[in-house]
Amino acid sequence: MTAIAVHGGAGDIPPAELTPEREAAYQAGLERALRAGQAVLEGGGASLDAVVAAVQALEDDPLFNAGRGAVIAANGICELDAALMDGRDLRAGAVTGVRHVRNPIGLARLVMERSPHVMLAGPGAEEFALEQGLAPVPNSYFVTERRQHELAVALAARPVSHRESMMGTVGAVALDAHGNLAAATSTGGTTGKRWGRVGDSPVIGAGTYAANDCCAVSATGHGEYFIRATVAHEIASLMRYAGMDARAAADRVVHEQLRTLGGDGGVIVVGRDGTIAMPFNSRGMLRGSIDALGRMQTAIL
Question: How far is CA 11 from CA 8, 77, 135, 237, 260, in A?
């Protein structure tokens, strides 16, 4: 039995702004990521390899706020965060504030596998990437015309018609045929953020978590609230200690605990039994899954 789910961001998505062409492009991107991860699982591969493959596909797609196409900080620079966790032994790796790493999720994996640390930040993470043989890219590689426009609007604090209102972050969770769970998350953060800001994505237990005894979780939304609520670990705890299934636990945290704080966004969760949950309390969330029966679905609103 295998299962995989991905997300491509949650937030305010006015239906009038979601043209048929944009909707089709988003769904195609989600499907490519799902198929990249599913190909690993179908070949008997590990859930960790599957979530990395899925997230890298989203990082390379300029439609999403991760890797190329990431949003831009107030200083005009893209600063990227990523994390992953292996449910087999609770190993984890994360990077934050990187500016020249094409696929931050790949660097996060190297932190986990080739260093004694869990998280590396900024210049230290960049130096580690060079030591590991990753070729740097100029920061301009991540910048797109759409994100430049979004930054200008954000800095001017003025509404515009047809603005891109999708919040960012991409992620994947998976269960492999051996019963192992894994989660991965990658993001450019929020448009116009103060440089040096760290959201929930690279914080283990907030935006990313996986443990074989319960579930794998990847989150997207207003990161500060997800950190305060330790959303990913809270879902795991409700499953582990209160006996909730993936759907009940995820709904409790997203629709009750997170909303009480004033946070919006959503999560994707896969339980150890293959159950997939994808709740959100925002207007929409880019999401997709392939369940244990091989059924694929993608959705936005």
Answer: 10, 22, 33, 26, 17
In angstroms, the CA 158 to CA 49 distance is 42
* Strand-pair category, 296-299 with 170-175: unpaired
In angstroms, the CA 184 to CA 201 distance is 9
Given a contact cutoff of 8 angstroms between Cβ atoms, the answer to whether 253 and 261 are in contact is no
Q: What is the mean pLDDT of the chain?
A: 94
Instruction: Count other C-beta atoms under 10 Å from residue 165's C-beta.
Output: 14
Contacts of 106 (CB under 8 A, 6+ apart): 52, 56, 134
Q: How far apart are CA 261 and CA 228, in angstroms?
A: 9
Q: Which 8-state DSSP code applies to residue 208?
A: E
- Position 168 scores a pLDDT of 72
Q: What are the structural domains of the chain?
A: 3-294 (3.60.20.30)
pTM above 0.85, yes or no: yes
**Residue 149 in 3-state DSSP?**
helix
Rg of the chain over Cα atoms, rounded to whole angstroms, equals: 17
Contact 35, 87 (CB under 8 A): no
Please choose, from the candidates 222, 149, 215, the residue with its C-alpha nearest in 3D space to the C-alpha of residue 181. Answer: 215
Q: Are 182 and 210 in contact (CB under 8 A)?
A: yes
| Annotation says 169 is catalytic | yes
Q: How far is it, in rounded angstroms, from Cα 167 to Cα 8?
A: 9
- What phi, psi does 270 have (nearest 5°)? -125, 125
Q: Check 2, 169, 187, 208 and give the catalytic one.
A: 169
Q: Name 24's Cβ contacts closer than 8 Å, sequence gap at least 6.
A: none
Between CA 153 and CA 251 the distance in angstroms is: 34
**Residue at token pair 């790493």:** 101
**N- to C-terminal Cα distance for the chain?**
28
Q: Give residue-wise pLDDT tens across range 23-49.
A: 999 999 999 999 999 999 999 999 999
